[in-house]
Amino acid sequence: MADILLVDDEDNVRRPIAIQLSRVDNYNVVEANSGNKAIKLLKEKYFDLVITDLIMSPVDGIEVLKQSKKISPATEVIVITGEGTIQTGVEAIKLGAYHFIEKPIKSEKFIILVEKTLEKSQASKEVKYLRGELKEKYKFENIIGNSEPMYKILKLVAQVAHTDSTILITGDSGTGKELVAKAIHNNSFRADKPILVVNISALPENLIDSELFGHIKGAFTGAIKDKKGIFEEADLGTIFLDEIGDAPPQTQIRLLRAIEHGEIKRVGDTRPINVDVRIIAATNQNIKELIKEGKFREDLYFRLNVIPIYIPPLREKKEDIPILVNHFIQKYARDNNTKIKTISPSALSLFLDYNWEGNVRELENIVERTMVLCTKNNIETDDLALSFPQGVPRIKKAVEDKTDMTLEEMEKWLILSTLERYDGNQKLTAQKLGISTTTLWRKLKEYGILKTGEEKN
């Protein structure tokens, strides 16, 4: 049974649609004759679909859409627009509506659209259920995200965790390769043994072999006693080799032997030592290119790449951003013993607009910085100016999108957008633009934004 909320303040429009929908099996239709009533119902009950008219008063369909997405993100929304208002429908889709349909409504086309929308809603619920089931069954508490790419990664982790195959995790810096490696270890039969993390690029080249494989007394200057390496320390556990692409040639030979024969030799020693470890490697480099350049052994690559896992950059799974932002807000509120802050939709949209070259790591740093610097309970766009590396990113993007404007057109656009942001408050707008209210008032008149005779506010 699909629960549908139908919202329109005109009875003569709403009732025929409700009757039409009620004729379809398994549709339970609830009517709301105002935006306020619709929002109240959304808070009381889950709906699979909301169908709302856009033009209503005092609460319009756009507000119903926004509140629906806030209260119940999984609920799909169809908006009804008047003739010649396609642009408004497009704007609604940008805000999260699944589709829009113009009046007058054609019965057959409308029912098909409702069916398609409910199919999407059901598929979305099933995917979320499966993802929730995965996270409950397996120890994935530190991997945040509900996007399709993340679901595929979690599913693959669950499949390969109980094997002993070597794994190569690829992806940009900051995407969470180490978290995925730890999730694999924590769900394997080696979970009660250690997982030791080694960043190859952080070790001096002349000490890498000693760190990984150990050494005997006198093997080199400063080797005053025998020392176990990471491979011996991690026996029966897992080794995570980060930045494997930076491994020097002699280390690659030793790693290949460890994988193929399950044995290592300490630096300076000829006696083999049997080791039982699982190897998970990671890199942000293109290993195939390194092979072509003669910097990486092809045979080692094949041994490591038995199970490949690719983690896409954050910009390719932006649906995870709101969840990540909320997660880190709660984390740093807990760590700093402060009240959990909320974040405004406009501030959150800046996170969605940003390119995230540093991926999840960069996002976490920005949230942490904002939590420290923001003194209010709600994070607004102003609070992000000092947190983003180049100030608020949308301004930069907006300016780039308007490079074909004249200086006068750019100035008018900037005044209008700032005025809209502060709900028409000229004083706040002038302060934000760094000009006097008199100058702003003059500009408003000059550009025809303020008609002669209107007063300053």
Largest sheet: 5 strands, parallel
Q: Which fold name fills CATH's third level, the topology of the largest domain?
A: Rossmann fold
N→C terminal distance: 53 Å
Shape: elongated
Walk me through what this model shows.
It is a single chain. Helix 17 packs across helix 18 and helix 18 packs across helix 19. It is built from 19 helices and 14 strands. The chain folds into 4 domains: 125 residues, Rossmann fold (3-Layer(aba) Sandwich), CATH 3.40.50; 163 residues, 3-Layer(aba) Sandwich (Rossmann fold); 81 residues, Helicase, Ruva Protein, domain 3; 44 residues, Homeodomain-like (Arc Repressor Mutant, subunit A, Orthogonal Bundle). 29% of the residues are buried. It is of the alpha/beta class and 457 residues long. The two termini are 53 Å apart. Helix 3 links the parallel strand 3 and strand 4.
Which properties best describe this structure?
five-stranded parallel β-sheet; 19 helices; Rossmann fold; Helicase, Ruva Protein, domain 3; 457 residues; 13% strand; 4 domains; alpha/beta
Compact description:
The protein is an alpha/beta fold and 457 residues long. Helices cover 47% and strands 13% of the residues.
